[in-house]
Write a structure and sequence with these properties.
Chains A, B, C, D: One of its GO terms (molecular function) is isomerase activity. 4 copies of one chain form a homotetramer. Chain A is of the alpha/beta class. Chain A has one domain: Divalent-metal-dependent TIM barrel enzymes (TIM Barrel). Helix content of chain A is 48%, strand content 9%. In chain A, helix 4 links the parallel strand 1 and strand 2. Chain A starts with a helix and ends in a 9-residue tail after the last helix. Chains A and D meet through helix 7, strand 8, helix 8, helix 9 and helix 10 of A and helix 7, strand 8, helix 8, helix 9 and helix 10 of D.
Chain lengths: 426, 426, 426, 426
């Protein structure tokens, strides 16, 4: 199923007058305050976030899963889903595959289908946290960190194979999330496991094409509950430095201990030129994988504030790979992703409104109250008209979620695919 | 020092055109969406938050304190400070005293001065967490929970004396924050301490005038670091039930373990008719006592959403006593309080925009996406024009912080009081 | 498979001399310090912990599961597994079933088999957190808290049906763990859900036989990640009070926010006569369900210290239902349970060594240092000889884990059951 | 006041028989298990921990302080206090000074007095978190991270001055705890502050004598409650690398977010040769500064297990500077320190009992259960006889706390110093 321009135009029609009025009012107001809105709208319209192929079906917990209807059963259908998101939002122009869940059979067809939908292939993801049917070695006792050479080599080779697949699709980076760790004190030797991991990552790095990047994710706990080999940004940073210039840390918002100041980590990594990618989601307790911006929207804004600062002031840091990494246990996955995309755009828009010069001046004056006011003014502004304008400018929907419902997309998908399909993934 | 109506009028003048435009635009937009703004503005204009007398000077940490200038050195000056806040915001029409720090000598004069400034005396606070010069018994080993009868009786009598003082000023409630607890496992007997506390609170309750309420605060840790007698809402609730109908739980936003769902606690207490008071502040790590709304404004909104729901649907719960309980280590205390008052009004305004009927319908339909949209729509709306309008309607400042700076209030206070005064308190 | 007395006797043989020496030395030492060891050994030998039927197979996480060999495929085999644990430890004399996973077909045979193994049926557990095949109503939107009457009635009836099953087996209590909650702000109405839950529990309570107890578990999060209806002990306590005298709170060690003082909760509940049951496990981050005592053994001891105090001083509180509720992702489940049983006995033994009178005296003297010493002295004592003696006194194994390995139990189970059986459960 | 050998001998007398029996029993038991005890006792007797000069008086919180009696009023008296601790325990043979609180006037006299007491001067500590009377620049807006050059240079020079003082006393390392940070989002620029800090530390490092080391402490929050410049080990590690080979990370046990796996951090730092120092204390909630081992003794043991491993296997890492950094709000400071010293020795002793070869074998076999058993066996062993033996071997007290009380040390100190002296410090 694909959405046509006509469908979107007619869905947008009723809201245009309101949008014009809101946009003009906001534009006037911001101009009066010395802020030009066109560059903001322009930046918003260029911002593209990858959708992971595993986020298109219902998620679950260890206690079970309530399935959803019309889930994509094939890679082509997954691309279709992302195509729908992109048609509506114009900000989901990439897909991030997970191997082996999404291994293509006909590469040319997949590339063509993606191109047709306007989708690029962003960072590709390996999986060494589960045993695959027919695997020679089990990852029960570790993969890239394993002391068993068989399992470790199998994990390294899997990553290299993922790179090969990615190359055929046009990806330019590999994301390694290493779940390796332990459940009990003493279970493994921390130092040996770190040494093995460093060696494995270097081997993978050595096998990367010259224009590829390696992203090293970190996470404090889960699925292991005593220790995780790459437990924090410090460990990831150390490993990225050990690999080389094209190895970077990847930050997933949900992968932090309670109360971590994530925006400061982002800032440090960009200063050091080592922030490579970003996984969006939200959480209240742990790696809850909730809809972006649904729990802590101000924290998301503060992070974007550092990202915008870094993108402007840190040429030493590469362009970032952006991805949503959320799970949807109680919502239509596509609706959830639309909400996430909206929340990301809103946070970005607000961060773009921050007058960095004014902020620097207030910081220089030690005017703490004024510094806070500057950030809060940006955050309190209703920036939805700017995001709407950015979408309209590229032919997207004024209100993606509204259009999705009005156009009855899910019913159509169920009609096409059947009710009880189950997407590969968790 | 007092601000005159003329001073405020002239400070407001330059911003009125912008305000009118913003207000009209928002008002139109909300009307179109079926929301009447007048009742919202009206509710905002009636909302009054007490300022604690100890929040008018610079705060500190155990590592030291950087002092501020022109702090109020007397109770009269403290009232003046609150008067300034109230003149600017029209939402700070009450003061909450702390005994012994603010024990009046001339009650009539204090009452008269407060009346002149339009200030009421809200809940009065006792202090049994510090030893006062000349005290017969030390609270080192506990106060209301003490097993030493001397210390315990002294603490009970102190509370009754605080009630007497409050009566003379027109207060109608006593807030008990009991810091009692232990630093080490085994230090005291949990059960004995709880029994003693229950008995002490009942004695205090028995001594309350018939139209007074007792508020029982809870806190998980600090200044004790292993256990605290009233560690959570459950313990406070149990004690309030043991005392009687006019004893209630008081919620301080900073007094929770990491990730606590505070809004649900608020909701449960109002359902059971046992939420008596509310202390506003914000925090990232513990009881950080930061400016309200400076770290987690969405959480504040969610809490207000429950408060608004409860105020409409829970006649079994009394009117709440609202107070700011923040500390100001790096800001002008009055500016900090202005920021807190603004944040409270904004959160309240957003909560008032939530269409409770529409939300109930979406909840009934299990339309999780729509439920989230309803809350986010309210939160994403720029409600500042509504809060401005509420202030203007009562003769306050359009932009309190701006007016405070423009009128050079702090310089005037320093001129009047001198640079190195120090307010009593922490 | 069952272990014979002879097998155990011969397994014990080589270690007896060492045990005698250790026991005598410790006994002398404690006697010298005024502590009689026989009552301690006696108490230890009487202590019985239930094994949940779902803990006999490998556990997993939402990221997958590495299976184990020789898992019990039937209820009879589950009983056999518990029988093995009990034969070895003499402290696992009860089983706690989970319905529908363990619904018996032939009740008489099941009862007979359990009796033969010396096992009682302790609290029985209902499940309304998953949809069962063929269920008319889904629990996707809640069960006991649901606003849909169909789902709610189905959940109530399921609980009553579980009670019927329990009655036929000799259980005397029902444990309700209610996973109901929400993933997003606004998703449901807190008050309505609590009211529904209270009503549902009252209906279940009304359907209990006169000699049954109702245990109400609480948990702050997971599988829901924004709110949980019964989020803390305060909510459970409130609901238990609403039900009646035979309704109690059940504490699961892993169900708390970071840094919660659990021992104080235990103490408060026993004082109020409302602690009904206890689920043992350990955790570092959340509800990690790790082996008891593997992460925080001192916290476990402190909790036992309160339990021992309560068992001696709180006649108002009933005898407790003890159960292990751990998961085993990387260990042989039976070995893991043996380690848990050992850790529980050790914590209990240490708590029994605390001289409560001496502690009360030190507390009365405000001798904080001495209070700490008393607890630490008990904890630092190597109490393994006492636990060994208690086991020997009942015909168990001196070293259960050693005997289990020496007798090659797992290999025998694999031989009997096959390698790839999978136990019902998570 | 100094304790004489005779006093200690007579205090030890009554317990010697018991000690001999316990030691012999344990020694036999361990020998039987293949563990030689002499090397353990030998290692214990060599282990020396520094006492910080600010830990000899009562501590407090921001809510107040309950003072203690007989606190040392001069640097000489502080040395006396440490001398008493060392005489009793033979494991407190160093003192760690804090400047400006302990700036000596007569260096020769101070050195001589320390030598007489058998005390060395370990790492010396600077203070740029408070303004000192007469200081030209305030640290209100930062010190080493400040954007104001005046304050920053003053802070750098203070550190260099501290090094000079340390040199005169024989110290060989400087510990920098940088409290710099912010209370509100936007208050300062993260990147600029980190750049300034790196530059400041390099200047200090450049001024160090060739045989000195620089220790860089980290802490997530407090006294600042939104951000801290050196918030975690990753930041400290990065800064130490930027300074050079003699710059290291210092780990303080209380300076971590909830649930952090500290032992893994220790392990990583030692592998990379960058762990320089260690501050001991314990905590339940934050930087509670409680007595070592009073809350989480097993975590302390696990950390020591990594330390022992690293000391044996990581020649790339220097000898560590050990210090207690606790506060004593409700205890006699000297008694508290005795309890801390005991807890450290016990954790070290237990870690020394771990058979590293056996552990490595079990890890290689993926025998998770056995790995856990090995650690737990060591931890469950009552190692007090080994620690006693180590103390006796050097002429210390069998039971330091008992001897301290029996010899009525505090009464003597009050007699000498008076009741109401107050030690400099927090």
């Amino acid at each position: 199923m694909q959405l046509t321009k006509d469908q979107l135009l007619s869905a947008n029609e009723p809201g245009l007058r309101r949008h014009e009025s809101d946009y003009n009012h906001l534009s006037d107001k911001l101009s009066e305050a010395g802020v030009a809105v066109e560059p903001v709208v322009d930046a918003l319209s260029k911002f593209q976030v990858a959708i992971p192929s595993w986020a298109l079906g219902a998620g679950g917990t260890r206690f079970g899963r309530f399935s959803f209807h019309g889930e994509p059963g094939t890679l082509e259908q997954k691309l279709d889903d992302v195509g729908i998101l992109h048609a509506l939002t114009q900000t989901a122009g990439a897909v991030s595959l997970h191997i082996p869940w999404d291994t293509p059979t006909d590469y040319a067809a997949v590339r063509e289908h993606a191109a047709e939908l306007g989708l690029a292939f962003d960072a590709i993801n390996s999986n060494t946290f589960q045993d695959q049917p027919g695997a020679v070695h089990s990852y029960r006792h570790g993969s890239l960190s394993a002391t068993d050479e068989g399992a470790r080599q199998q994990a390294i080779e899997h990553n290299l194979r993922v790179v090969e697949i990615g190359e055929k699709l046009g990806s330019k980076s590999l994301t390694v999330w290493l779940a390796d760790g332990t459940n009990f004190p003493g279970q493994r030797n921390f130092q040996r496991n770190l040494v093995q991991t460093e060696d494995s990552l270097r081997q993978i790095y050595a096998g990367l094409p010259a224009d590829w990047k390696l992203f090293i994710e970190y996470k404090p706990y889960e699925p292991n509950f005593y220790s995780t080999v790459i437990q924090d940004w410090g460990t990831s940073f150390l490993l990225a430095n050990a690999c080389g210039d094209r190895a970077f840390t990847l930050v997933d918002l949900g992968h932090h201990l309670p109360n971590t100041n994530i925006e400061q980590i982002v800032s440090t990594l960009m200063l050091k030129g080592k922030l490579g990618g970003f996984h969006f989601n939200d959480s209240k307790y742990g790696d809850d994988d909730l809809t972006v911006g649904s729990v802590k929207p101000y924290a998301l804004f503060l992070i974007f504030n550092e990202l915008v600062y870094g993108m402007r002031n840190n040429p030493q840091n590469p362009d970032l790979a952006w991805m949503i990494d959320a799970s949807h246990n109680v919502k239509d996955p596509l609706e959830d992703l639309l909400q996430s995309l909206e929340a990301i755009q809103l946070a970005y828009a607000r961060a773009l409104l921050v007058d960095q010069d004014e902020l620097a001046t207030a910081q220089g004056d030690h005017d703490v109250v004024r510094c806070q006011e500057i950030l809060q003014n940006a955050f309190r502004t209703d920036v939805r008209p700017l995001v709407e304008r950015a979408r309209l400018s590229r032919g997207g929907a004024l209100h993606p979620l509204g259009a999705y419902r009005q156009l009855d997309v899910r019913r159509e998908l169920v009609r096409e695919r059947g009710k009880h399909t189950v997407a590969t993934g968790l």
